[in-house]
Write a structure and sequence with these properties.
Order of helices and strands of chain B: EEEEEEEEEEEEEEEEEEEEEEEEEEEE
Structural class of chain B: mainly beta
Largest interface: A-B, 59 and 49 residues
Strand content of chain B: over 45%
Helix content of chain B: under 10%
Number of helices of chain B: 0
Strand content of chain A: over 45%
Structural class of chain A: mainly beta
Oligomer: heterodimer
Radius of gyration of chain B: 21 Å
């Protein structure tokens, strides 16, 4: 039983932090790691320095004074320390930094003494490649940071990393690894670089959002911090152009949209068409739409580096102007990025006199029929006049004025499909209707009047 | 043979015109001259531009203007091919030919080609499945003793018979078949292998990038006013239909177009025809009660056609009615 107790005590002594009186020694890298009688700095690239913070913690119930902090050996030095003696309160600690600066390619050792605690420090200097980066990246700086800079969120940037072997012998670099979700490389995890030569490989940074992203590059014994920042980059408002300088009712027109500068990102969005009629008779004209899809909202895509908005892969989209005077408004939305400048473009469809698209005259016994196909984008048609002519072109009597305004108003009031109408006017004639050979019709609205061509009765 | 309005909803009485739901107004009697007394009826309705055959086999009216079109509700369903003439439309279902005037006749299965330049009472029809040509006259099909020697792409009624564009090795050719002599006469080689529509004095021929209007037979002289052909910016055309009122429906990879040919006449003749091309909207999805717009209701009182009946609303599952069955 006694033998067992002694063995356990020895075991605890060996694995516990180096303890003397009330002092325990730790290596501090954000967390405290107990330092035993030997502490290894590991492999250090030739020309590099490696600092390790040591922490002497007072684990006792009374104050302890650090009276001795010394080091013997080559390659190591004590830096960043308070002057000695230094009293450490119970529970508090005393920090100092051990720096290793190796020169030749060999192993190094030194003894560190803190009061009565002695620790053997070990380090090895090894050959390592030098690291260089091409623009747009910068670094590595004195802290070993390689910066990918700031890019638009959703964008990517690729930097070329070069590992140079300046030694006189071939150098195997392993590992070559990249960490961090925003960073990636196609480089294999190990490479042998001939003496005096170099290898290069890309590292891609993808900014998934408007944040700063970090990672690391390990190249043999050296590790570099990687950093890149994504920022929200609103898409500049596209310029909308139409295939005609002015738009009128009853047309199909083509719209193209271009960014003033190449897009920094791949983006997608929607173009929405809204219509506000001038007339209060109706609330909408459903014929106003992107015709090929029969809707008022259409998706588009913008490729990184391009200025073109592509609608179903096409650079233009066709829309119908309808048959109602009013305002067409095209609004661009790119939800992921937003739009700088005005996202909306409005176009006015002016009020116009009745537009006659077809007119004809027919005869049935003593009935004369006039059929007019037309549209009235003011929704105020109704007043009209009819002039009849004989075989010599002479006017037969005065023009017949008519006012069908109330009927047109009744016809129009429930329309949502536009103002197109087909009017069939029948004139029962008492007398010899064959003497009436032709007619003209004048249609009026608030924007003016229009006269049909001379319509001949067959 | 029977008058069969079954595939047409409500058009058998008025031909292709629908005068229901219209406004009427009286103009008081007016004395023009001592010998004339004139009153007037005024009727208002929504104009119809043409007809279209949608991808689901529905024939729909195109309403409003060609430039601002909206589609009405289907008036015929389960249609494979259609052609609309000034007074009537003919439609081919899987097993019959129907007229919008109410006639119907059993016919070989599958789609068909209807002749252009025809009257409502005389139409030549080519049936792909059997390679036969028949004459539609008075609601009857009379098969012609004729072998085209290839697949007919288009038919055109012509003097004493018909012209036809037929696909042969080496390209499409146009020939004339005389019903009097039962002989074939070459008209013109067209080349190409795409869809074709024979017109009066010309041919519409689709290529990958455009639709070409080609004079046929070719002119003796090619001038600015009388070019042999010109191209319309309609890529990917795959099918032509006569849409009525002088319009032609062109189905393309990106949707349907409505083509209006415009004559331009001088002493040398009426050529070139300018052409207006209009994009047609897609029909509303099945089950969408609205038609002709993006999700907004249509006022039925002003649409060209009344809403389809309930039995017709499940058109996708419907089979064409057998000839002789009245709807």
């Amino acid at each position: 039983m006694r033998a067992h107790a002694l063995a356990l005590t020895s075991f605890i002594v060996l694995l516990s932090p180096t303890v003397h009186a009330q002092i325990s020694l730790f290596a501090y890298t954000g967390t405290e790691t107990p330092v035993l009688s030997v502490y290894g700095f590991g492999q250090v690239a030739q020309g590099d320095t490696k600092d390790v913070i040591f922490r002497a913690r007072n684990t006792g119930a009374s104050a302890v004074t650090i009276t001795k902090l010394a080091m013997s050996g080559t390659g190591f030095s004590i830096v960043n320390t308070a002057s000695i003696p230094f009293t450490v309160a119970p529970g508090s600690s005393f920090d100092f930094t051990m720096r290793f600066s190796g020169g030749e390619l060999k192993s190094y050792s030194a003894n560190l003494q803190v009061n009565t605690i002695t620790v053997l420090l070990l380090a090895t200097v090894v050959a390592a490649p030098t690291v260089a980066v091409d623009l747009p990246c910068t670094g590595p700086d004195s802290q070993g940071l390689i910066s990918f800079g700031r890019i638009s969120q959703g964008g990517q940037v690729v930097c070329t990393i070069t590992l140079q072997n300046s030694n006189t012998q071939a150098l195997t670099v392993s590992p070559i690894t990249v960490t961090g979700a925003a960073f990636s490389t196609t480089q294999s995890p190990a490479a042998t670089i001939p003496a005096g030569q170099s290898i290069s490989f890309p590292i891609q940074f993808t900014a998934a959002g408007a944040n700063t992203f970090t990672g690391s590059l390990s190249a043999g014994v050296r590790t570099y911090a990687l950093s890149g920042t994504g920022f929200a980059a609103p898409i500049p408002a596209p310029l909308l152009t139409f295939d005609s300088a002015s738009l009128a009712s009853g047309e199909q027109r083509s719209l193209t949209a271009k960014l003033p500068a190449p897009s920094p990102v791949n983006a997608s969005g929607t173009l929405t068409l809204t219509f506000t009629p001038d007339s209060t008779t109706i609330t909408d004209d459903s014929a106003v739409q992107f015709v090929s899809i029969g809707k008022r909202i259409i998706s588009f895509a913008i490729a990184q580096g391009s200025t073109d908005l592509l609608f179903n892969g096409q650079k233009s989209v066709t829309f119908a102007t309808g048959t109602t005077a009013g305002k067409l408004t095209f609004t661009v939305d790119v939800p992921a990025y937003g739009i700088t400048g005005s996202a909306a473009t409005s176009v006015k469809i002016a009020q116009a006199p009745v537009t006659v698209t077809a007119a004809s005259a027919t005869r049935r016994a003593n009935d004369l029929d006039i059929v007019i196909s037309a549209f009235d984008n003011t929704y105020t048609a109704g007043r009209m006049s009819f002039s009849f002519f004989d075989a010599n072109g002479g006017l037969i009597g005065p023009a017949i004025a008519a006012d069908f305004s109330s009927y047109f108003a009744n016809f129009f009031k429930s329309q949502t499909l536009g103002s197109a109408f087909l009017m069939r006017v029948t004139f029962p004639v008492t007398g010899d209707a064959t003497l009436i050979r032709s007619a003209e019709v004048t249609l009026m609205n608030t924007a003016g009047s229009v006269k049909t061509q001379r319509l001949n009765f067959p | 043979l029977a008058r069969q309005p079954s595939v047409w909803d409500g058009h058998e009485k008025s031909g292709i015109r629908n005068l229901d739901k219209q406004m009427k107004a009286w103009l008081p009697p007016t004395v023009l001259m001592a010998t004339f007394t004139v009153g007037a009826w005024a009727q208002l309705e929504r104009p119809q531009v043409a007809w279209m055959l949608d991808a689901q086999g529905n024939v729909r009216p195109v309403l409003g203007l060609a430039g601002s079109p909206t589609l009405g509700d289907p008036v015929a369903r389960n249609i494979l091919s259609v052609a609309c003439f000034p007074e009537t439309c003919l439609a081919k279902t899987e097993g019959a030919v129907y007229s919008s005037l109410g006639w119907a006749a059993e016919a070989p299965e599958g789609p068909a080609v209807f002749s252009v330049g025809a009257t409502a009472d005389l139409v030549y029809i080519y049936f792909y499945s059997t390679g036969q040509v028949a004459k539609w006259h008075g609601g009857q099909l009379e098969f012609v003793d004729f072998t085209p020697g290839g697949e007919i792409l288009s038919l055109r009624a012509a003097a004493e018979g018909f012209d036809y564009a037929v696909a042969r090795e080496g390209g499409t050719v146009v020939e004339h078949f005389s019903m009097e002599t039962m002989t074939v006469t070459p008209v013109a080689p067209l080349g190409g292998t795409g869809p074709v529509l024979l017109l009066d004095g010309a041919v519409l021929a689709a290529t990958e990038d455009a639709v070409k209007l080609i004079r046929c037979p070719a002119p003796a002289e090619d001038t600015d006013f009388l070019p042999a052909e010109f191209a319309l910016d309609i890529p990917g055309a795959g099918q032509f239909f006569l849409a009525g009122n002088g319009y032609i429906q062109v189905n393309t990879k990106t949707g349907a177009r409505l083509l209006r040919m415009n004559g331009s006449c001088r002493d040398e003749g009426c050529w070139p025809w300018s052409a207006d091309v209009f994009v047609l909207p897609p029909p509303p999805p099945p089950g969408d009660a609205a038609s002709g717009n993006a999700g907004e209701s249509v006022d039925p009182s002003m649409s060209s056609n009344s809403a389809p009946d309930a039995s017709a609303s499940s058109q996708d599952a419907q089979q064409p009615e057998a000839p002789g069955d009245e709807q």
